[in-house]
């Protein structure tokens, strides 16, 4: 675990020294600010549920943007081969990358607390439980999307392709809710269970369900293992 945290800390520090990170942060906050302004000052709703739902949509683009270079950039620069020769487990590299991206995600979520502060100052009848649960749900969903992004980045050396692949996989999990009415009734529960929106909806209502936590953690572990398996297969192919 010490190696994982060391890699995560180093990756996070490198990301925070990059101008592109702050450009993405600013774009994220501008979009959130516009949505929040419309919600609070025009619709006069002292809650953040609508904002959380929009953040969930933004995650589809934001998280692939911060994870697309996690493995692809290492392969492109040749440092991935160097890392593979060091006494570091591939699993430590993968989890270090996921944790580093999660640090960025939590940083941007902390910045959105400005919206929460405005609600607290000017709002009435605020459901604090729903807001806290909403933030927890967003972090769990974000962790799962982050694992998907690192998995996608383990395939190509081109970061743009990694972004597109992560976006497509993430979009499948998000868009499942829209195709449910088109599916035969017998298989609806299966696809509904795989929908990220389905598992996030409980926390946005102020309920933390253990099954939802296990689902997001399960998705995170599965894609982390897939990324590890992919890197191991590529290393074996190169050794032949």
What portion of residues is helical? over 70%
> How widely separated are the two ends?
31 Å
**Stretches with pLDDT under 50, minimum 5 residues:** none
Q: Could you report the average pLDDT, rounded to the nearest whole number? A: 86
Order of helices and strands: HHHHHHHHHHHH
Specify Rg, calculated over alpha carbons.
Answer: 19 Å
Specify the structural class: mainly alpha
The description of the largest β-sheet is: none
The best one-word shape is globular
Q: What is the number of E strands?
A: 0
Number of helical regions: 12
Q: How big a fraction of the residues is strand? A: under 5%
Provide keyphrases for this structure.
single chain, 240 residues, mainly alpha, 12 helices, 0% strand
Your description of this structure?
- With 240 residues, the chain is mostly helical.
- It is 82% helix and 0% strand.
- It has 12 helices and no strands.
- Helix 1 crosses helix 6 (90-111) and helix 3 packs parallel to helix 8.
- The mean pLDDT is 86.
Quick overview of this protein structure:
This protein is mainly α. Helix content is 82%, strand content 0%.
Give the arrangement of secondary structure elements.
Elements: H1 2-16, H2 19-42, H3 49-67, H4 72-77, H5 79-85, H6 90-111, H7 113-122, H8 128-153, H9 159-179, H10 188-194, H11 196-204, H12 210-239
Helix pairs in contact: 1-6, 2-3, 3-8, 3-9, 6-8, 6-12, 8-9, 8-11, 8-12, 11-12
């Amino acid at each position: 675990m010490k190696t994982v945290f060391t890699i995560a800390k180093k990756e996070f520090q490198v990301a925070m020294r990059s101008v592109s990170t702050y450009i993405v942060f600013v774009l994220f906050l501008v979009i959130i600010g516009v949505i929040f302004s419309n919600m609070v000052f025009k619709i006069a709703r002292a809650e953040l549920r609508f904002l959380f739902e929009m953040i969930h949509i933004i995650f589809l683009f934001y998280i692939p943007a911060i994870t697309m270079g996690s493995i692809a950039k290492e392969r492109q620069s040749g440092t991935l081969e160097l890392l593979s020769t060091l006494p570091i487990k591939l699993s430590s590299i993968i989890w270090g990358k996921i944790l580093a991206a999660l640090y960025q995600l939590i940083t941007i979520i902390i910045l959105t607390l400005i919206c929460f502060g405005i609600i607290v100052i000017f709002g009435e009848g605020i459901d604090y439980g729903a807001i806290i649960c909403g933030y927890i749900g967003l972090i769990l969903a974000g962790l799962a999307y982050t694992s998907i992004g690192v998995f996608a980045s383990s395939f190509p050396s081109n970061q743009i392709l990694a972004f597109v692949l992560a976006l497509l996989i993430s979009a499948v999990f998000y868009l499942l809710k829209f195709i449910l009415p088109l599916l035969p009734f017998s298989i609806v529960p299966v696809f509904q269970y795989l929908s990220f929106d389905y598992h996030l909806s409980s926390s946005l209502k102020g309920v933390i369900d253990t099954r939802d936590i296990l689902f997001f953690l399960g998705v995170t572990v599965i894609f982390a293992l897939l990324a590890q398996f992919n890197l191991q297969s590529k290393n074996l192919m190169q050794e032949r």
